[in-house]
Specification:
The protein is α+β, with helices and mostly antiparallel strands. The chain has five helices and three strands. The protein has a single domain, classed as Arc Repressor Mutant, subunit A, CATH 1.10.10.10. A three-stranded antiparallel β-sheet has the order 1-3-2.
């Protein structure tokens, strides 16, 4: 692990941060399994984190057929923008 990654992980949990930033910077709609691949994480871990994010009104889960599409709420987008700026510093 690089020094920058080590100090980043002192302040933030990497996977939830990556998930928010990925949703922010994505030009397409995401669903949990695609997001898991993007951030190199297990599907079950992603689902657990997404449930917490939904509970805290950071994301909205919209069911379309068999898929559950993920979008950031206004609050989630604001936090993701701040996180994105911070990740550049590390």
């Amino acid at each position: 692990m690089q020094e920058k990654e080590k100090i980043f992980n002192v302040f933030f949990r990497a996977k939830p941060t990556l998930m928010l930033v990925e949703l922010l910077n994505s030009s397409t709609n995401f669903y949990a399994s695609a997001l898991a691949k993007e951030v190199d994480c297990t599907y079950s871990h992603v689902v657990k984190i997404l449930q917490q994010m939904e509970t805290h009104n950071l994301i909205k889960v919209e069911k379309q057929g068999r898929l559950k599409l993920l979008t950031l709420t206004k609050k989630g987008e604001e936090i993701a923008r701040h996180m994105d700026k911070l990740t550049v510093l590390f």
